[in-house]
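Blackboard transcription, Thursday session:
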Amino acid sequence: MNLKEVAAMALCQRCGNENSYIHLTSDSQTERLCLRCYNSLMAGEFGVEAESYPEGMTIRDGKGTAHHFEIRKRLDPLHIFMEAMEKKQGGYDFKVMGDLYTDQGELLLQLIAKAEREMAESYVEEGTFPDGQRCHSIRSGRLAGRVGWNPAGGDVPLLAIDGKSYTWDEFGKMLLHFEGFQRKLEMLDLFEEIEWNNSKQKKEQGQ
Ligand SMILES: [Zn+2]
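(Written on the board underneath:)
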């Protein structure tokens, strides 16, 4: 069996739920399923049930702004995946993964803890020029975010930072303050976690 997640919203072919997003394909047929039907199919095959979990939660970032997340859990033959996704352009998206027999309550706590850690720091400061035009700057010389799909098309992605979307042009203007500086770029998948060497930063600040 091959699995393919599709972003398009469509009806689940088993229960009619509008929230289907998994394509299940075998050699002879393709079936589109919602998460609940898919997980119960996996439970039938592998004997592990997707235990109940909250469908949504709200977490405040380091500035106190509330972000509402949709929570998903998905089983596969070897793993359990959990995702907290803010349903808006450029919103935060966090994922964790455990083996199929992992403690599912613990996995949810890991997801929440990861979201809290990564949302503790905000990277972009919004300001206003004297003429009223909005501007953005990088607060502390470092920045983390996610490369995102650009609904306007074209061949340049959007950048999701602090749960918001920025165009490549806006990002370029933020870098103007750092002309002559070096730049470090590292790509991590969503299951990994962005970690900073804070001791190095404190040393540079003479702390
Ligand atoms: Zn269904």
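Lecturer's comment: Residues 48-120 form one domain.
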